[in-house]
Amino acid sequence: MARTEITGRKPHARSSRRGVTRAGAIRKAPTAVFSVASFCEAHGISEAFYFKLKNQGLGPDEMRLGSRIFITHESAARWRTVREAATAATTEKAIVTASASGSEM
Questions:
Q1: Which domains does the chain have, with CATH numbers?
Q2: What was the pLDDT predicted at 104?
Q3: Given a cut of 60, is residue 105 above it in pLDDT?
Q4: What count of other Cβ atoms lies within 10 Å of the Cβ of residue 81?
Q5: Which residues in the chain belong to E strands, given as ranges?
Q6: Residue 26, pLDDT score
Q7: Interior/surface letters 28-59, b for 16+ CB within 10 angstroms, e for the rest
Q8: What are the distances in angstroms from CA 62 to CA 7, 8, 12, 51, 84?
Q9: Is residue 26 within 8 Å of 20, Cβ to Cβ?
């Protein structure tokens, strides 16, 4: 390291940033389940959209403890797999339809 008398900079004590996010918040220990709010945050959707999906029967399986609603990580993984498969099927159907309509010309 360069000497302070040469660089003109003040020496500073190095602090460990382990366990601290870029915003400076302290990270919490991971939980075994998601709450509805943490599930939505982790999957980048709003709570309103979560409840819209739930009402359409497209939401993840829920676990109720008293009045609280939790989603297990396994349930979230199954939900993602089903949603990805549905998206792939829709995309494949659109490609087949587009190629079939293009060959009629």
A1: 30-97 (1.10.1660)
A2: 54
A3: no
A4: 10
A5: 33-35, 63-65, 68-72
A6: 67
A7: eeeeebbebeebbeebeeeeeebeeeeeeeeb
A8: 59, 60, 50, 12, 19
A9: yes
